[in-house]
């Protein structure tokens, strides 16, 4: 059942796992504390390292998923001659990245009806994401946000209706002015929405789309160095470069990008993050976005490509469970929190050992893991 050894870089696919256990440093750090947690809880950071190294060289037998993602590029009417070349370059950057990621690419540059037709022939269920990038100009009259196309403009409400039958992962990148008004209409489960602006009132030309088109295929935007650039990482890179542009030019920023991936329709600003981790929480009952977006890549690493669709889906669910648990840390006593955390980590380890996440044996899993020099007390997150 087990085949060839993996390189160490493969276990960067545990993305959130090591970051979630590592003590925080810098501006979001907290002083260390003493805990009455159990020995297994206190040793959890070292246990996690043991889990990762104990699974080196393990890979499930089934053949990898051979399907291809789809990328649909809708290119706006230029409005002015200078923008024609700009939007064309954005589309070229997207096409280059999509081809590198072995995705199927289709360009729509005439009317909303053409986009509708392109979506109608797309599989509604698939293990591969559907990417939609809207590149160019947008408008918002206070009632209906629109994306400008040479023919009939695309309405946000129409795109939301056309996407409603899809059960596969959908990524929509709205690279145009006033695109913040598209966030709530398009928000849904298993969907990632990126907008160039935070509202429909940011109506000036948006530069964010050009930076994102480059970042999605740029290895330099890979913040956690796992060999692939996620939607989250590309968004953070593009948002930072957009902010840098206005700062360098001495201008007031007229665009503030949002990311939405948890279905609440609220979105999160890039300044909520340190690296790939949200270090601020939205006001009210909202939750920060980013966990799902960090699992999606237009150009997957070679190690990611070797995962079966089933294994990838199970891993992604466990990582999201891990992220939710961490967000809820304050709601649990330390001992309960670390016990829950250990349970998720053990299920991830079993998954990489070729077992089902809920499998169990007569022997406690922790007895099969070598724990090296457990610390006296856990470090605060």
Strand content: 5-15%
Number of domains: 2
The name of the CATH architecture of the largest domain is 3-Layer(aba) Sandwich
What is the structural class? alpha/beta
What keyword list fits this structure?
single chain, 381 residues, alpha/beta, Rossmann fold, 2 domains, seven-stranded mixed sheet, three-stranded antiparallel sheet, 12 helices, 12 strands, 12% strand, globular, disordered C terminus
What does this molecule look like?
With 381 residues, the chain is of the alpha/beta class. The protein has two domains: 8-62 and 306-368, no CATH class; 70-295, Rossmann fold (3-Layer(aba) Sandwich), CATH 3.40.50.1460. The chain is 34% helix and 12% strand. It has twelve helices and twelve strands. A seven-stranded mixed β-sheet has the order 2-1-3-7-8-9-10, with helices on both faces. A three-stranded antiparallel β-sheet has the order 4-5-6. A two-stranded antiparallel ribbon has the order 11-12. A hairpin with a 6-residue loop joins strand 5 (145-147) and strand 6 (154-155). Helix 4 runs parallel beside helix 8 (208-215). The longest helix is centred in the N-terminal third of the chain and has 20 residues, at 81-100. The radius of gyration is 22 Å and the shape is globular. The relative contact order is 0.17. Residues 1-66 and 359-381 have low confidence and may be disordered.
């Amino acid at each position: 059942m087990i085949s060839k050894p993996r390189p160490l870089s493969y276990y960067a696919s545990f993305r959130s796992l090591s970051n979630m256990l590592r003590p925080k440093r810098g501006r979001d750090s907290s002083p260390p504390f003493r805990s009455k947690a159990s020995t297994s809880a206190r040793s959890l950071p070292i246990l996690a390292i043991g889990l990762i190294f104990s699974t080196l060289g393990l890979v499930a037998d089934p053949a990898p998923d051979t399907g291809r993602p789809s990328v649909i590029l809708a290119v706006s009417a230029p409005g002015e001659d200078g923008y024609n070349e700009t939007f064309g370059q954005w589309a070229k950057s997207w096409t280059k990245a999509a081809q590198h990621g072995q995705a199927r690419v289709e360009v729509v540059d005439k009317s909303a009806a053409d986009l509708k037709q392109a979506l109608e022939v797309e599989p509604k269920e698939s293990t591969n994401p559907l990417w939609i990038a809207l590149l160019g100009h947008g408008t918002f009259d206070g009632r209906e946000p629109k994306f400008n196309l040479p023919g009939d403009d695309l309405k946000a409400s129409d795109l939301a209706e056309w996407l409603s039958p899809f059960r596969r992962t959908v990524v929509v990148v709205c690279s145009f002015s006033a695109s913040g008004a598209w966030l709530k209409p398009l928000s849904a489960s298993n969907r990632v929405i990126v907008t160039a602006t935070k509202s429909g009132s940011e109506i000036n030309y948006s530069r964010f789309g050009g930076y994102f088109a480059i970042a999605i295929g740029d290895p330099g935007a890979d913040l956690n160095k796992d060999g692939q650039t996620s939607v989250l990482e590309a968004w953070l890179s593009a948002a930072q470069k957009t902010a840098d542009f206005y700062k360098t030019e001495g201008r007031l920023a007229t665009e503030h990008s949002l990311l939405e991936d948890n279905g609440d329709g609220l979105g999160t600003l890039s300044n909520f993050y340190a690296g790939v981790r949200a270090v601020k929480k939205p006001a009210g009952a909202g939750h920060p976005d980013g966990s799902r977006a960090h699992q999606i890549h237009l150009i997957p690493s070679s190690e990611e490509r070797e995962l079966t669709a089933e294994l990838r889906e199970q891993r992604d669910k466990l990582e999201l469970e891990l992220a939710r648990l961490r967000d809820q840390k304050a709601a649990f006593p330390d001992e309960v929190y670390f016990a829950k955390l250990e349970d998720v980590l053990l299920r991830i380890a079993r998954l990489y050992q070729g077992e089902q996440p809920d499998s169990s044996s007569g022997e406690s899993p922790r007895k099969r893991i070598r724990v090296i020099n457990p610390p006296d007390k856990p470090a605060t997150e």
